[in-house]
Amino acid sequence: MASVKNLKKEINYVLGDLVDIVYVWEITNGGKPTEKTDEIVDSIYSTYDELLVKINNREVENKKAHFRQVRKDFEGFVNQVVEKINGLN
Questions:
Q1: Of 53, 24, 28, 39, which Cα lies nearest the Cα of 81?
Q2: Three-class SS string for 40-65?
Q3: Which domain holds residue 69?
Q4: What is the distance, to the nearest Å, from the Cα of residue 47 to the centroid of all Cα atoms in its chain?
Q5: What is the domain count for the chain?
Q6: Cα 81 to the center of its chain, rounded Å
Q7: pTM of the predicted model as reported, rounded to 2 decimal places
Q8: What are the residue ranges of helices labelled H in 1-89?
Q9: Closest among 72, 61, 78 to 1, alpha carbons compared
Q10: N or C end of the chain: smaller count of CB under 10 Å?
């Protein structure tokens, strides 16, 4: 892994882009939030907070394995959100 700083940036940018995609979908489909879109955005924000707590945890024994797991969790979550967004239609 290149650096923790880059991982934080990637998480911030990707999750921010997903929130933007949900808001654009809302605008193009009636202009008002729905329960599904609110649920997706809330899950993105809560996962962002959880991932940053995991990244900032300095009491891990094997940092390399820890950050690999954080990245794996992040990628899995992003795939789930993309599937939810694709299912909004």
A1: 39
A2: HHHHHHHHHHHHHHHHCCCCCCCHHH
A3: 4-86
A4: 6
A5: 1
A6: 8
A7: 0.88
A8: 4-28, 35-55, 63-86
A9: 72
A10: C
